[in-house]
Each structure stands twice: as structure tokens, then as C-alpha cells.
Amino acid sequence: MWKFPGGLSEPGEDIGDTAVREVFEETGVESEFRSLLSVRQQHASPGAFGKSDMYIICRLRPRSFTINFCRHECLRCEWLDLADLAKAGNTTPITSRVARLLLYGSREGFDKIDLTMEELPAVYTGLFYKLYHKELPDTYRTMTGLD
Predict the structure, then answer these.
(1) Angle at 142 between CA 136 and CA 147, to 5 degrees
(2) Which residues are designated catalytic?
């Protein structure tokens, strides 16, 4: 069954850093975070330690292409064409949907599917948070008041 790499965040680890680390640990491929694609929420999942499970799907850009996968976590690992993966019968529903999202983004523009990250100052002095959202047009990013 084909699926995308994934795993749990370490305490204090940002979403993008988790995705990059997990891809490297499972495949040996170095990558960089580009955007957040979607979020899956599931309750009563057996692997969620009695908690509600939030599975965050990120879009990464590969910085290397040689696969050296972890044999403890994967039976097989290879690059697949997105159109083939989207049509494959031996995937999970989420893998098929994400492949379709990525295929749409690659053909029509990732701005149609990406949630970008912006770091903003928190109300607590010296702290910052990351806000994930659809990209705003420049006219809305810089406006100081409403007309």
C-alpha cells in the first residue's frame, strides 16, 4: 500500500520541521518546507494514545533525490508520478486525495491549494507564533485600515 511519509512531532517542534525530519528519516531524501496543504482530524484512533488525532499534510520541495529508506519503517520506497499515484488502487484514501491536490497544484498553480506560513508577534513580549493561511494579495497585506 502506497502512502506518504509521516510521523509524530517532537515537543516544541514546528510543523514544517517535523515534515522535513520525517521525510528524511523514512526516505533519506532531504527537503524543505513549502506550505501546509490540509489537516485531517480523527477521533478515537487506536494509535493516538487516547487523544483526538490531527494529521497535518505539508508540501515539501526535495533538495536531494537519492532514496535511502529506513527498512524498519518502510517495505519499499520510490518516486511515483502524481497522476499514477492518484489513480492507483493500492493507496489509502488520504494518499489518493493528497496526490490529486498536488497534481492540481502542479498544473494550475500551488497558490490554489497552499496554506502559507507567516510568523507574527504574540501578545506575550518576545514570543512569536506561526499562522497558516491562504496567501493574501499585496493590497490586503499592506493595508492599514478599511476604506
Answers:
(1) 95
(2) 25
